[in-house]
Amino acid sequence: MSTLKDVAREAGVSITTASYALKGSKKISHETTLRVKEAAKRLNYLPSGIARGLKASKTWNIGVFLHGYSGPTYGDVLQAIHDGVSSANYEMMVCSTSVSDRLLMERHMDGAIILNSFIPDKTLERVQSPNFPVVVMDRTIELPNVSCVVADNVAGGYMAVRHLLDFGYKKLAFIIGGKESYENAARVEGIKKALYEAGIDFGAVPVAIGDFKEETGKSSMKSLLNQYPDIDAVFCLNDEMAIGAMNAIKESGRLIPQDIAVIGFDDIPLASYTTPALTTIRVDRRLWGYLAAVNLLELIDRKGSGRIVKIPVELIRRETVGKISVGIT
Q1: 159 and 260 inside one domain
Q2: Do the bridges between strand 280-283 and strand 313-316 make them parallel or antiparallel, or are there none, so unpaired?
Q3: Contact call for residues 133 and 145 (beta carbons, < 8 A)
Q4: Is residue 96 scored above 90 in pLDDT?
Q5: Scanning 109, 246, 269, 276, which has the fewest C-beta atoms within 10 Å of its C-beta?
């Protein structure tokens, strides 16, 4: 098995230079780094993460803690996190188990990225430290060694409702998620803001509670149609529920958007392929994941302290909102 000394000899540099080059240090020129990496490739050299960890008190591992692996959002987010941490020579370890709390407490990594609302704030408070920074992507929390990288959900909720009102829809309904979800609470806050500006009482608007899945979107929409058959627009707090709602509307014999408009949130890949194509609020998942990685690396390198970073959202106009009111061009 090739050693670092072998790589240094092959590249014609010192062992120290070879080590820095393989770690991507800016102290080493691009040309030298390229020469060292090519030498390592020719020799099939694999750096020992354990050896590096013993010398520098680092594991060169980043933990990513998810609620689960299903769902259309994780792929882009994980790829972007991987791209971010691997550019700094870190490995990404993904965990989605019932023992996430224990794995976090053991801290066999240099930092963690959290996208799992079931990991409580008290656990994050206990594990975070200058030597073990954390980035959360599913809530905001003020701790010195924790950064929060979240979508601007309040703006997104506001944007969706404002879009419906501007198009002349008056009998709105909402399908929201669970009350324990930060994203749900923030999006509802945006809804309330838009309604308040329009002189509409949120308490007077029909609301159904789902769990961010297509099946509950469908069942919630059926319930709304039975109780409020004259609603003319529904805002679902994620695209999966919106797709389920669209199926329920079609089964009732109503047309989208002629009878009922639908708007979702997230802009998952399937949103542009529904019939009609779903109008939604886009969250740039690759930017979200990449900024989570970048912010964690900055904390690990002691280049900053915990902060809140909001990812901007965008209204994607497609085909499920289309009734144009007088004066709208």
Answers
A1: yes
A2: antiparallel
A3: yes
A4: no
A5: 269
Q: What single letter denotes the amino acid at residue 15?
A: I
Structure tokens given for 7: 């790589």
Q: How many domains does the chain have?
A: 3
User: pLDDT tens, 267-305?
Assistant: 999 999 999 999 999 999 999 999 999 999 999 998 888
The token duo for 91 is: 């490995």
Domain identity same for 84 and 172: no
Quote the DSSP letter at residue 256.
T
Same structural domain, 180 and 271: yes
How many CB atoms lie under 10 A from the CB of residue 10?
18
Q: How far is CA 35 from CA 87, 88, 273, 312, in A?
A: 17, 18, 46, 40
Burial status of residue 196 (CB atoms within 10 A of its CB: 0-12, 13-18, 19 or more) = exposed
Instruction: State whether 240 and 178 are in the same domain.
Output: yes
| Spatial contact of 317 and 263, defined as CB atoms under 8 Å apart | no
